[in-house]
Amino acid sequence: MLAHAEGHATRPHLHPGVQVLGDQGAEGRKAFFIQIEARPGQEDAVVQMLRDIRACVENEPGTGPWFAVRFSTTRFGIFEAFPDLAGRQAHVEGGGGKIFRDVERMNAILEGAAQVHRVDVLMSKDRFSHL
Question: pLDDT at position 131, please?
């Protein structure tokens, strides 16, 4: 509880941890694009959360390319790709999904719910070219 200016206790702003946007879509290659905003002063905790998620996806056979990115001091993102709906669903049910379902942790470090966009992969270049 936080002390309000008039001496009344108020609850900190709470959010659901994640907000999932978009449809499952038809069968085919899938991805998540996730937008994350850290609470001021919690940027290092968000980077640690990203490390924790990456450790989970290392052992997920249905998770392919995975990237964590930083847009600014407090804004981060994840792009992760899957060969099909089953691979994406296995990821949701796995360790990375479990981290996002930890609403207490998400409320402590995120300004608002992580915006999880379900997307279809239309085209890709999956390998680096030799230089």
Answer: 64
